[in-house]
Write a structure and sequence with these properties.
Immunoglobulin-like, alpha+beta, single chain, 240 residues, binds copper (II) ion, 5-stranded mixed beta sheet, 7 helices, 38% helix
């Protein structure tokens, strides 16, 4: 075969390989729709059977981009562990923040909301949002070494948010159904959730106890004030 006839074939093959390599490269570098769906499933799993969280994390890992492999491995190990401390390590916080950033930047959503949690308020939380999949990133900007969370709840029996809000905390938690949660233990860290919100009114709150000098109150001690008692509570209207 003459060189002049071989060349076009080689060029053709190179273009083909190049196309395939580029396609794989894209897939490997960013969050696919399937990866985003599995991340939303994993987040919803916080409110289901805890023994299924490891499987949900693995399902996400199967779809997550290769570029996040190391971080996803840390997340799967933490979610599969019987030791709750696995989610308190700085290594988990960093991996969770990086994966959350990819979700926040790359997953389709009706709104991507960046909220700062301070002592004691949510900064940047809108009062309304369109229904559908919302990406919500919470950063912990405490100045007193507090962990913070953002929990989205609705009435388990259809109670409107305003009615829930007026209840004492213990009763509120009995009557509320959580639909979204982001927890950020380490000051300066951030985490992201993907939550599918239906139209309605919701309460957004941080139910963690106020810590003294960074020390959480003992479980068997007197009931502590919650961050919500100090102002970390607001309503969210989800428009149809
Ligand atoms: Cu808080």
């Amino acid at each position: 075969m003459s060189p002049t006839r071989t060349l076009p074939r080689l060029v053709g093959a190179a273009i083909l390989i190049g196309t395939i390599a580029t396609a794989c490269g894209d897939d490997a570098e960013s969050m696919s729709a399937a990866a985003c769906d599995r991340y939303a499933d994993l987040q919803a799993g916080f409110f289901g059977d805890p023994s299924q969280l490891g499987a949900a994390a693995t399902a996400f890992a199967d779809e997550a981009p290769d570029s996040l492999d190391d971080d996803v491995e840390v997340i799967v190990a933490a979610f599969s562990s019987d030791d709750p401390a696995a989610m308190s390590s700085p290594e988990f916080a960093e991996a969770n923040e990086r994966v959350g950033a990819a979700v926040f930047d790359e997953c389709d959503s009706v709104a991507a909301i960046d909220v700062s949690s301070i002592d004691y308020a949510f900064d940047g939380m809108p009062s309304s949002v369109s229904s559908g999949r919302v990406a919500l990133r919470l950063s912990n900007d405490t100045e007193s070494d507090q962990p913070h969370e953002l929990m989205i709840v609705t009435g388990a029996d259809g109670q409107p948010a305003d009615e829930l809000r007026d209840l004492p905390m213990e009763e509120l938690m009995q009557q509320a159904r959580p639909v979204g949660l982001v927890f950020v233990e380490q000051p300066g860290a951030a985490a992201t959730t993907l939550v599918d919100l239906e139209p309605g009114t919701y309460l957004v709150m941080c139910n963690l106890p106020v810590a003294e000098n960074g020390e959480q109150p003992a479980d068997d001690g007197p009931p502590a004030d919650t961050h919500a008692d100090h102002g970390m509570v607001t309503t969210l209207t989800v428009e149809a």
